[in-house]
Amino acid sequence: MLLNICNSKTKKVLAAAVFASLLQGVVIATPVFAEAVATSETTASQETSTSEATVTQVPKQSKAKAADNTVALPDTTEQNEIDHSAEFKPVQNEFLKEGEGIPGSEVPYQNERSLSNEEWKAIDSLEKDIRILQREREEFFKNRAKEKEEKEKAFTNAFKNRQEYSIVFNPDDYSTKTMDANGEPVTFRAYEHLVYVKKPYDPESQMLSIFIPEAYLKGGTINGFTAETAPIFMPNGVGGYMPGQIVEPREESRHGGANAALYALSNGYVVVSPAIRGRSLKHENGYETGKAPALIVDYKAAVRFVRFNRKAGRIPAGDTEKIISSGTSAGGALSALLGATGNAKDYVPYLKEAGAAKERDDIFASMAYCPITNLENADMAYEWMFHNANEYYNAGPARRVPPTANSASPVGAVQDRPANAPVEAAKGTAITPEQKEISAELKEKFTEYLNDLNLRDSLGNRLNLAPDGYGLFREYIESLYLEAAQNAIDTGEDVSKTSWLTVSDGTAVHMDFDKYVATVKRLKGVPAFDAFDMTSGENNEFGTYDIPNKHFTRYALEHSQLVTVPKEEEEKEIAEEKARQYNLASPVEKRQLRKANLEEQMEKDKLDLSQYMANGRVIKMMNPMRYIGNPDVQTAPHWRIRHGVLDRDTALAIPAMLAVKLKNNDKAVDFKVAWGYGHAGDYDLPELFAWTDRICKIKDKADAILKEEQKKAKAKEQE
Fewest CB within 10 A of the end CB: N or C in the chain? Predict the structure, then answer.
């Protein structure tokens, strides 16, 4: 399902759709994104083509070209469109020849009034017209499927001869380096630029480097770890869903001192850092190769590469049962996605197509700084949080690199923003009345979504919201800010100038939510992520190999500047009215309604909605919330999530919901809001690695105890 819609509303819409189908094509009420009954790969691949055939659509003037709804990988299982014309065939008597009689489903009961000869002739004529139209519609969908199949073949052929690589690690190909990590020398071996899939679409973006402390190659220990027990730290350099570069060990970082990779090495960790495809990646043949779900496919492939080669003894150090991911912003979302989706079957066809190693891709722990995630619900969460703000401060699209002397920020832009983050203006832009109305609608929809999650606090209380946006969930969000303030107070920081905070006797006792919003201000416009003109970075992320940008929420599609789609409530009203008319119609009028409706639908079929809307399965694959709690998925047992008090790139509600859902599914979660920070990461490396040390050493002790017990049990059996 492309949007999480409350169950009661979904059932009502589906009920209308079922009733419509019983009317043999009279009602065109099937929702565009009705929840599929089955979740098989076949059902998922059919989702969008079914939608395009049933939604009421009116095209607007658009530069968007007709294209398919496929993803950026040429997996034929996922991308082949299936002819759905049979779904629109009414029940017919196979023994009737064309023009003879009427289908058995239309034979009147004995107590129905007798029809005149003229009426029977009219019925026969209409039935013949309907069958002709149905065949024309079936042919239309066959031709569309054929066109899409040809496009997919062209894509496959464009990459058919791409170079193949070995994914067997060579332990002899390395260089030795020494760096200063906050005053301490660290010597390590660097195995650099190793392609981690056999058939990469872009080798430069699908390679990794492995850094191993030299002490492990000489039988030494660091921080209590050995070559066998050393955790594997896997940071990603993704930002703004753009291509992520290999995170090299560096002596200086944005926050001063050694960066995370070098800090990890100094603490005895093996560091594996992959380059990862992103949304702006385009092959020289013109095809886009970094659209969703490419990022998570690559991250998983890197994990598989490490497990494959470490298990075979080729990588000389590192415990693959203690892999820890880390990232910031979209990279934080990617880290969370990797942690949530261990061994999920949805990704297997993509991994296979790229030639990933046949190994597990679950991990031990995930570190996520300010994750820009849960994108199909992020607009709603943002408006719930920032609805009362009357200005936004986004000055333009994401920058590909941090500003430098040769690449200055636009005039009036805020400095020191993370790489690939939206440019932040010093002066705000007013929210229009129309945007305010949209904000209110999205805020209301967030309440429905949040309540549907059935999240619980540690006492079992349901973290819900009332229609006005107030409730225990809001109190929980406020408590996170108060906890951050209290931590600042306890460490000696002066918070007296914080206008939205009330402090009594050294204790943070109250926050004014509206004052907080007025002080911090909103960064993004309305909507924040799925732009109506499809110009956001997230729209770009959900494009396909030949269509750069797509919508990924039902709401944005309904308000799109490129295509007109009725709202779900309107669809329901139309369905109910047509059903009412059909029930009151005479036998001849029923055929007239069926024919008119079929002609209307055939006109609407001409618009291929997949030009504008991302595939539902791909949207799911980019959201960790959709996998947590799935019994067929191995979600990481340990999580550390951070969100800055001053962060307004996404709403705090987004990581908060992620953290609570993880806790509700018995995962260990360290979730906090960091005082004094905005949209940033890696600002607390000592605390981060104290956390990783603790969970890793607890696991090592537990493993040692278990091993000893097994040894004793085996000895007892032999007595």
Answer: C
Work out whether strand 365-369 and strand 323-328 pair parallel, antiparallel, or are unpaired.
parallel
- Tell me how far apart the alpha carbons of residues 659 and 649 are, in angstroms, rounded to a whole number: 18
| Size (the chain), residues | 719
Q: pLDDT digits over 679-699, tens only?
A: 999 999 999 999 999 999 999
Indicate the domain borders of the chain.
7-59+75-108+115-158+563-611, 175-373+640-712
Task: Give the tens place of pLDDT for each residue, 603-639.
Answer: 888 888 899 999 999 999 999 999 999 999 999 999 9
Q: What is the pLDDT of residues 204-246, one digit of tens each?
A: 999 999 999 999 999 999 999 999 999 999 999 999 999 999 9
Q: Which residue has the tokens 């600042």?
A: 488
- Strand-strand pairing, 422-430 and 175-181: unpaired
The DSSP output letter for 410 is P
623, two tokens = 């959201």
> In this structure, are strands 207-213 and 184-195 parallel, antiparallel, or unpaired?
antiparallel
Report residue 371 as tokens: 């994750």
Instruction: Determine the 3-state secondary structure of 687 from DSSP.
Output: helix
pLDDT over 70 at 716, yes or no: yes
The CA-CA-CA angle for residues 319, 321, 322, to 5°, reads 70
Identify the CATH homologous superfamily for domain 175-373+640-712: Alpha/Beta hydrolase fold, catalytic domain (3.40.50.1820)
